[in-house]
Amino acid sequence: MEPQTITLETERLLLKEMTPELYQHIFTHYDDEAIKSVFDFDDKGLAVAKERFTKGMTYYHITFKYFLVKDKDTSKTIGTCGFYRWYPEHDRAEIGYNLSNESYRRKGLATEAATRILRYGFENMNVYRVEAFASPTNTASIKILEGLGMKYEGLMRGHYLTRGVYEDSACYGLLREEYDG
Question: What value does the mean pLDDT take over residues 63-86?
Fold first, then answer.
């Protein structure tokens, strides 16, 4: 039996909760084609996700709560949005978003999803701080973060290792009292 989850709604999107329990259920009960369908993965995405699952998705102080972003008209999974790192004992979470299909980008959908997720974090998860990291050259993502009301806090040098290269991250944060939801 699949674990119960919640679904959030926006004007154009359905956001289906992905918990550690549901992730576990999917990866232990579904075949590769079904997993690819649920997440809209290609073969490479499936391989990465299976490796993450095998290595463990949660730790003592860190977990996650993210959502599959689904087009309301087609029910097709078009990306993810949520808290990829959640530190419950510190009331802090790191928000992230990704639209996997190019045809859904530049239409305000990532902002629409992130706005709803941000509200969920402050109102339902009782987070005090939400943070985000983006490449300083990713102007689209920075525009989303600033549109959410997040404040630039500085540059984290050599923060991510991407294809063998250490890259910087622009750090953004938003505190509960700054949230204007």
Answer: 90
